[in-house]
């Protein structure tokens, strides 16, 4: 059975654009978020990851959906379980920690990137 890496992610969708980040070690943009530490709830992990990656807080957190797809850059057969949450940012997001870039992208802009994450493509399809 293939390995599935469980992660949490923040979905900020404004004016037809999704808030995305790219880590300095990745080629694909993805949602702000990351792995859940042992003993953390999904919401605790989301708050920690948003603080680490964007330098902001998040409030009014609500579960949106879960996507399971091939994980980008994690090796053959590794999947990601992307647990998506919505919420309002508290502060202005800026790249922090390992984040090299932050961008607001439409679906078309994302699909024009040289590397994309299958779970993000599926999310865009659901967002419209």
TrEMBL record:
Q: Where is the Nudix hydrolase domain?
A: 1-128
Q: Cross-referenced InterPro entries, in alphabetical order?
A: Nudix_hydrolase, NUDIX_hydrolase-like_dom_sf, NUDIX_hydrolase_CS, NUDIX_hydrolase_dom
- Xref: Pfam families: NUDIX
**What does this protein need as cofactor?**
Mg(2+)
Record has Hydrolase as a keyword = yes
Q: Which UniProt keywords apply?
A: Hydrolase
Q: Does the keyword rRNA processing apply?
A: no
Annotated family: Belongs to the Nudix hydrolase family.
The protein's matches in PANTHER family, at most eight in alphabetical order, are given as: 8-OXO-DGTP DIPHOSPHATASE-RELATED (PTHR43046:SF2), GDP-MANNOSE MANNOSYL HYDROLASE (PTHR43046)
Write down what this protein is called. NUDIX domain-containing protein
């Amino acid at each position: 059975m293939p390995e599935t890496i469980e992660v949490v992610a923040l979905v900020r969708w404004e004016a037809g654009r999704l808030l995305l980040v790219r880590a300095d070690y990745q080629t694909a943009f993805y949602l702000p978020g990351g792995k859940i530490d042992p003993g953390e709830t999904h919401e605790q992990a989301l708050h920690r990851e948003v603080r680490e990656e964007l330098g902001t807080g998040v409030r009014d957190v609500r579960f949106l959906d879960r996507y399971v797809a091939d994980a980008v850059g994690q090796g053959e057969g590794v999947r990601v379980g992307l647990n998506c949450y919505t919420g309002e940012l508290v502060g202005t997001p800026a790249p922090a920690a390992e984040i090299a870039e932050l961008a607001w992208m439409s679906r078309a802009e994302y699909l024009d990137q040289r590397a994309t994450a299958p779970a993000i493509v599926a999310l865009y399809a659901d967002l419209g």
